[in-house]
TrEMBL record:
Residues 29-43 have a biased composition (Polar residues). Keywords: Cell membrane, Lipoprotein, Membrane, Palmitate, Signal. The keyword DNA-binding does not apply. It comes from Paenibacillus allorhizosphaerae. This is Extracellular solute-binding protein. Residues 1-25 form the signal peptide.
C-alpha cells in the first residue's frame, strides 16, 4: 500500500477529531478528477448485472447495528447478509468494531498495514484533513472513473439529482464515497416530546413557548412528583438539538445566520440568555440534576420509564416509539406527543431544530487503496442503489420480512408482531437500518399515530436555512487547523456550559468565557467554514 509511516502519524491525529458515530462515504462525477488504478482482476460481468460471476471475497469494516447483535455477532450471519450475498454473487467478510469503540478502532485500522477493501465511516469529520487528505494520503480511492464505468445505478441518481451530486463531491470535483441517501421524509427524526397523559391530568396544553414550558415543568415537579421533569442524553454535550437555545435565535454549534454568514453560537450575546434560562430551570429542579451523567441511552430510558421525567428531546422510533411500547404495558394511559421547538413569542417560527440532509456522511462507504479489485467492490456497493437492491436494504426479504400490498412493500406480522422482540430488533435482521443505500420513503418504523404527527410538528422550523452542512470540504491545511482549534474549543465550551447551567460559574463570567474562546481561534474556524460553505454553494 505504501505511505504507512504517514498513516501511523495520521492515526494519532485522528483521535483528536470530532467523530460521528456510524458509517461513511461520498462520490464525484467529473471524470477529469482522480481516476482509480486499474486492477488485473478477472473481468467482471456487465456493469449493473447481478449476480456477479466471481470467486473473490470482499472485506468490509463497518459498525454493526446494536439491535442485530441480539441475534448474531456478524452481519454475514444475518438473513440480510446471506440474501445480499445471494443477490449480488459477492461473498463479503465483515469486520465490526466493538460497540462504543468505533473511533479508537478506526484510528488503529487507518494506522495499520491491514486496511479492508471498503470502510464505512465519517470521512468528512473523522479523518484529519477530510476526504481530500485521505485521498492524498493514498488511504481511499477517488471514485469518479469507477462510478462512471461500474456504478450505473448511483450514476443515474447523481445525474437526476444535481443537489445531491453537489453534496457528494470535494471542491476539486472528486467523489470519495458511496453515500447513505435519506428520503425527503426521513430528514427530521428528533425533537422535544412530552407526557400528554400528565398534561391532560393537569389540564395543561402542549407547550409551545419558553414560558409555557416553564409552567409545565413546574407542574410536573410539584404535582406529579417528577424528580427530573426534563431530562436528556448527554454525549459530549447535552443532546437537545438546540431546543430552548434556538428560541434565542442562536445554536449550540456553528450555524448559518439569516444573512448567510457562519457563526459560532456558544459565544453569541443571546447564548448568554439561553444559559441564564437553563441555569434558572436547573436551580429550580426542573432540569435533571444528573444530566451530565446520562451518558448512555439506558439512563435516559430509566428516567422516561420510571415517571422520574415527563419530557425530553429524543428520537422518533428509538425514543418515542420504544418508550410508548414499554410504557403502555405498565400503564395503558402512558402517552408521549411531540412538542414544537419552543419560541419566545407565541406563533413565532422556530429558528433552528434537528434537520439533516439527504446525504449522510456518517453512514457512507469509501473504497480503500488496499482493495485488490476495486471494480468488484464498486459493483457490489452499487447494488444498493438498484430497484431490487433498495428493496433488500430497506425492507429485507420478500415473503419473509415484507410483502407487496397494493404495490407497496409492507413489513409482515413476523416483523411487526413478534412476542419477544421489538420492531427495530426484528427489522435489523433483514435490512440495513443505516448505510450506503437509497432510502425508501415508504419505509416506516412508526407504530403509533403520535409518531406520524411528531414529524409534522418538528418540521416547522427554519433549520433548513440555519444548519451548517457537515459535508462542506475545507482544504487539507484548513482541516488540520479546524481540528486543532475545535478540539480545544469544544472541550472548554462544554466544561463551561455545564458549570454555567449548574451554577458553578456565575453567568456574569460569560463575556470572559466568550473572549477566551475567541482567543482560542473561533473566528479563524468561522472564516474557514464560511469559505468552504461559499465554495460549496458555487459547485
Amino acid at each position: 500500500m505504501g505511505n504507512h509511516s504517514k498513516k501511523k502519524t495520521i492515526s494519532i491525529a485522528v483521535s483528536v477529531v470530532l467523530a460521528s458515530t456510524g458509517l461513511l462515504a461520498a462520490c464525484s462525477k467529473d471524470n477529469t478528477a482522480g481516476n482509480a488504478p486499474k486492477s488485473s482482476a478477472t473481468p467482471l460481468s456487465e456493469a449493473g448485472k447481478y449476480p456477479v460471476n466471481t470467486q473473490e471475497t470482499i472485506t468490509s469494516w463497518e459498525q454493526i447495528n446494536t439491535n442485530l447483535t441480539t441475534f448474531v455477532p456478524n452481519l454475514a450471519d444475518s438473513p440480510f447478509g446471506k440474501q445480499l450475498e445471494k443477490e449480488t454473487g459477492v461473498k463479503v467478510k465483515y469486520a465490526h468494531p466493538a460497540d462504543g469503540q468505533s473511533k479508537e478502532q478506526f484510528n488503529l485500522l487507518i494506522g495499520s498495514n491491514n486496511l479492508t477493501d471498503v470502510i464505512e465511516y465519517d470521512w468528512n469529520n473523522a479523518y484529519p484533513g477530510g476526504p481530500e487528505k485521505a485521498m492524498a494520503d493514498k488511504v481511499i480511492l477517488p471514485l469518479n472513473d469507477l462510478i462512471d464505468k461500474q456504478a450505473p445505478n448511483l450514476k443515474k441518481i447523481l445525474q437526476q439529482d444535481k443537489e445531491l451530486d453537489k453534496m457528494l463531491k470535494t471542491d476539486s470535483g472528486k467523489y470519495y464515497v458511496f453515500p447513505m441517501i435519506r428520503p425527503d421524509n426521513g430528514l427530521v427524526f428528533r425533537g422535544p416530546m412530552i407526557r400528554k397523559d400528565w398534561l391532560d391530568e393537569l389540564k395543561l396544553p402542549v407547550p409551545t413557548t419558553i414560558d409555557e414550558w416553564y409552567t409545565v415543568l413546574k407542574a410536573f415537579k410539584e404535582k406529579k412528583g417528577a424528580s427530573a421533569p426534563f431530562t436528556a442524553q448527554y454525549s459530549n454535550e447535552l443532546n437537545i438539538q438546540d431546543a430552548f437555545i434556538g428560541a434565542f435565535r442562536t445554536a449550540n454549534r456553528y450555524y448559518i445566520d439569516d444573512q448567510g454568514k457562519v457563526k459560532y453560537g456558544p459565544i453569541d450575546p443571546q447564548f448568554k440568555e439561553a444559559l441564564a434560562l437553563l441555569r434558572k430551570w436547573y436551580a429550580e429542579g426542573l432540569i435533571d440534576k444528573d444530566f451530565a451523567l446520562n451518558t448512555d441511552s439506558k439512563a435516559l430510558d430509566n428516567k422516561m420509564m420510571s415517571d422520574a421525567s415527563g419530557a425530553t428531546v429524543g428520537l422518533l422510533s428509538g425514543g418515542m416509539g420504544r418508550w410508548m411500547e414499554a410504557g403502555k404495558k405498565k400503564d395503558p394511559k402512558y402517552q408521549l406527543v411531540a412538542a414544537p421547538y419552543p419560541t419566545l413569542k407565541k406563533g413565532e417560527r422556530a429558528f433552528i431544530g434537528q434537520r439533516d440532509f439527504k446525504y449522510n456522511p456518517a453512514a457512507s462507504k469509501a473504497v480503500t487503496t488496499a482493495a485488490k479489485n476495486p471494480e468488484l467492490a464498486v459493483k457490489w456497493l452499487d447494488y444498493a442503489y438498484s430497484e431490487k437492491g433498495s428493496l433488500l436494504f430497506n425492507f429485507g426479504v420478500e415473503g419473509e420480512s415484507y410483502a407487496m400490498k397494493n404495490g407497496t412493500p409492507t413489513f409482515t406480522d413476523k416483523i411487526t408482531k413478534d412476542p419477544k422482540y421489538n420492531l427495530q430488533q426484528m427489522v435489523s435482521q433483514y435490512t440495513k437500518p443505516n448505510g450506503p443505500f437509497l432510502g425508501d420513503p415508504r419505509k416506516n418504523f412508526n407504530t403509533f399515530p403520535e409518531q406520524d404527527e411528531a414529524i409534522k410538528i418538528w418540521e416547522q422550523t427554519d433549520a433548513a436555512r440555519h444548519v451548517l452542512p457537515l459535508f462542506i470540504t475545507p482544504t487539507v491545511e484548513e482541516s488540520k487547523e479546524v481540528a486543532k482549534i475545535n478540539t480545544a474549543i469544544a472541550s472548554y465550551k462544554e466544561e463551561m456550559f455545564v458549570k454555567f447551567v449548574m451554577g458553578k460559574e456565575p453567568i456574569e463570567k460569560f463575556d470572559e468565557y466568550a473572549k477566551r474562546i475567541k482567543e482560542m481561534g473561533s473566528d479563524k474556524v468561522t472564516k474557514i467554514y464560511q469559505d468552504a460553505y461559499d465554495r460549496y454553494n458555487k459547485r
